[in-house]
TrEMBL record, chain A:
Assigned keywords, A-Z: ATP-binding, Nucleotide-binding, Transport
Protein name: ABC transporter ATP-binding protein
Transmembrane segments: none
Organism: Cryobacterium sinapicolor
Pfam family, one: ABC_tran
Domain ABC transporter: start-end pairs: 8-239
PROSITE patterns: ABC_TRANSPORTER_1, ABC_TRANSPORTER_2
Matching InterPro entries: AAA+_ATPase (IPR003593), ABC_SmlMolc_Importer (IPR050093), ABC_transporter-like_ATP-bd (IPR003439), ABC_transporter-like_CS (IPR017871), Mo/tungstate-bd_C_term_dom (IPR008995), P-loop_NTPase (IPR027417), Transp-assoc_OB_typ2 (IPR013611)
GO molecular function: ATP binding
UniProtKB/TrEMBL annotation, chain B:
Membrane topology annotation: Multi-pass membrane protein
Chief location bin: membrane
Ranges of residues in domain ABC transmembrane type-1: 65-255
Transmembrane segments: 12-34, 64-88, 100-120, 132-154, 190-216, 236-255
Organism: Cryobacterium sinapicolor
Keyword annotations from UniProtKB, A to Z: Cell membrane, Membrane, Transmembrane, Transmembrane helix, Transport
Protein name: ABC transporter permease
Length: 372, 266
């Protein structure tokens, strides 16, 4: 558990599939033992490739992978003490659930009786005690997911790799599995490396998050750091939603130099004639009100020439929905403005499109990550 | 999908006609096997069971069946092993010349039998200096039987993808263990389907066989051809033909059952 012996250490990890850009482009990363670590990014950002490099399914073009201080770069997948929960689960269809879970023990030469007992116990921990005799095809998506978890954890790997394991589940089940994953990780004390494109999932589960973009780590930090202090417009827009002020608008609206971001929930909207209690205000016109259940999304065209989104709780005061097109006043606190220091790599370049587009478009929801 | 009445009528008639063209001649063979005439005249002047009795005592016929079964079995076995290995190589590994090898493996099934036959005959006798025998027939048959196994197995491997094999390796299994416990069980039905086809191909092959069989080797198709126009033997040939038709229903039925079961389980 020492700092110089992390569970996983990646140094200069690079993978090229022969295209012009590297799929993974010089990643340096330490993941501590027992950590719940997420790799977050859009499809094609290289996160899945990094996972496959750690598992050993791909060989890096350059760089090394170390497991607990030991260089495993040249070792085959079956020679590495890491296990994977695959996106499509990859349960062996011709084996019973019990045999699937016992597989890792079987190839290690554990006697039949003992490995079945251990597998049964593992199924017990994922609450599938009575399902051992079924075939994977007879299980629901959530149950298969649990079997895959049991199969990968029964051999007590040092590190568990999870490749979008909740991607195929519906929302309710996904939320339930998130809780179970977190509990399982605490119980087993194994390092989890979790790949996802779902920012909410990453924020909920992780001790630390690496946000991937174009084969590089755009930002590394705790969920709160990532969400509250995004360093680049990419992170600000991909993790949650942000109002992004390019340099010119920052000067005009915020009176600051450089690119800045402001979270919609930090923006308040009031009638043009009412005084807001915030430090800063700007006049605008209410363009749209979108009701989303517990909150409403207010879209305001500022007079300074920018469209801004505000998120308001639907409980207390509200500019009512019939006031579309009316004059409003938008307010915020100075402390909520985040300076985006790294003006790198925005997928949609704010210079070429109407300045506010990256701010108003919520992070894209991809259903699958096909990046290999 | 719904069809109009006339369309349905026309299609039924066409279907009926085609089936008739295929199966009527087979029925003639069946009836002829009971005919009292020895020269395949139609309609049969009378019916008898004599030929059936004689067929099962005809040493030439029984020997030929045994020879054919023996050749087909061994050729199929060889094809299963080699076909699986080459499929794995071409589908799971990248190497120089992969496309070329793939083409060369499939080619024999498209080659005219007479070319394969002459070429192998030449190679065996003049280049290798091998006596033509039952073994040379088996080798010759295996060259094209491999193709049916190869096609079935490679299609299955492609559809399976690599994720099961990766999962197995991830859980600590080496290459051989992964093949034994994960890949092979998933290939079984493809191997059975490819094997049945290979067996059938070998069993009724006549051209290549003619060129590669040793002096004493008489497969069933060759025996039939030899005896068809001998007046006393023609009815026995009919009996053998009927038996073979009945026998070939079995593997086709099994193959269809497998295909059906696969669809259900996926």
């Amino acid at each position: 558990m020492t700092a110089d012996r992390p569970a996983i250490r990646l140094t200069g990890l690079t993978k090229s599939f022969g295209g012009t850009a590297n799929a993974v482009d010089g990643i340096d990363l330490d993941i501590a033992e027992g950590e719940f670590f997420s790799m977050l990014g859009p499809s094609g950002s290289g996160k899945t490739t990094v996972l496959r490099l750690i598992a050993g399914f791909e060989q890096p073009t350059a760089g090394t992978v170390s497991l607990l201080g030991e260089d495993v770069t040249d070792r085959a997948p079956f020679d590495r003490d890491v296990n994977t929960v695959f996106q499509d689960y990859a349960l062996f269809p011709h084996m019973s659930v019990l045999d699937n879970v016992a597989y890792g023990l079987r190839v290690r030469g554990v006697p039949r009786r003992q490995r079945h007992a251990q597998a049964r116990q593992a199924l017990e921990t994922v609450r599938l005690g009575g399902f051992g005799d079924r075939k994977p095809g007879q299980l629901s998506g959530g149950q298969r997911q649990r079997v895959a978890l049991a199969r990968a954890t029964v051999v007590r790997p040092k590190v568990l790799l999870l490749d979008e394991p909740l991607g195929a589940l519906d929302l309710k089940l996904r939320e339930q599995m998130q809780v179970e994953l977190k509990e399982l990780q605490r119980e087993l004390g194994i390092t989890f490396i979790f790949v996802t494109h779902d920012q909410e999932e990453a924020l909920t589960l992780s001790d630390r998050i690496a946000v991937f973009n174009e084969g590089r780590i755009e930002q590394l930090g705790t969920p709160a750091e990532i969400y509250d202090r995004p360093l680049s417009p990419f992170v600000a827009a991909f993790v949650g939603t942000s109002n992004i002020f390019p340099d010119a608008l920052s000067r005009a609206v915020l009176g600051r130099v450089g690119m800045h971001a402001l979270r919609p929930e930090k923006v308040t909207v009031g009638r043009a004639d009412a005084a807001l209690s915030t430090q800063r205000t700007a006049p605008g016109t209410l363009a749209e009100v979108i009701y989303v259940g517990s909150t409403s999304r207010l879209i305001v065209d500022l007079d300074a020439g920018m469209r801004i989104i505000a998120l308001e709780q639907n409980d207390a005061h509200r500019v009512t929905e019939d006031e579309r097109g009316s004059r409003v006043s938008v307010g915020w606190q100075d402390g909520d403005i985040v300076a985006l220091e790294k003006a790198t790599a925005v997928t949609t370049d704010p210079a070429t499109v109407p300045a506010t587009v990256p701010a108003t478009v919520p992070a894209p929801k991809h259903t699958t990550d096909t990046a290999r | 999908m719904r069809l109009s009445r006339p369309a349905r009528g026309v299609l039924s008639i066409v279907t009926g006609l085609i089936l008739l063209v295929i199966y009527l001649p087979l029925m003639v063979v069946l009836v002829n096997s009971f005919s009292t005439s020895t020269s395949l005249v139609w309609p049969p002047p009378g019916l008898t069971l004599e030929w059936w009795g004689r067929a099962f005592q005809s040493e030439g016929a029984l020997d030929a069946v045994l020879t054919s079964v023996q050749i087909a079995l061994i050729a199929t076995l060889v094809s299963l092993v080699l076909g699986t290995l080459i499929s794995l190589a071409l589908q799971r590994f990248a190497f120089f010349g992969r496309e070329a090898v793939s083409l060369l493996v499939i080619l024999p099934i498209a080659l005219p039998g007479i070319i394969t036959g002459i070429a192998l005959n030449n190679a065996f006798r003049t280049i290798l200096g091998v006596q033509l025998s039952i073994a040379t027939v088996i080798v010759a048959h295996a060259t094209f039987c491999i193709v049916t196994v190869f096609n079935n197995v490679i299609a299955r491997l492609r559809r399976l993808g690599t994720s099961y094999e990766e999962a197995s390796a991830d859980l600590g299994a080496g290459l051989w263990t992964t093949f034994r416990l994960v890949t092979f069980p998933q290939l079984r039905s493809a191997l059975l389907a490819g094997g049945l086809l290979a067996f059938a191909l070998s069993f009724d092959e006549i051209i290549v066989t003619t060129f590669t069989a040793g002096a004493g080797v008489k497969t069933l198709p060759i025996w039939i051809l030899d005896n068809l126009f001998r007046p006393s033997q023609a009815p026995i040939v009919n009996v053998i033909a009927v038996v073979l038709v009945l026998m070939s229903i079995i593997p086709i039925y099994i193959a269809q059952r497998i295909a059906g079961a696969e669809k259900v389980s996926r």
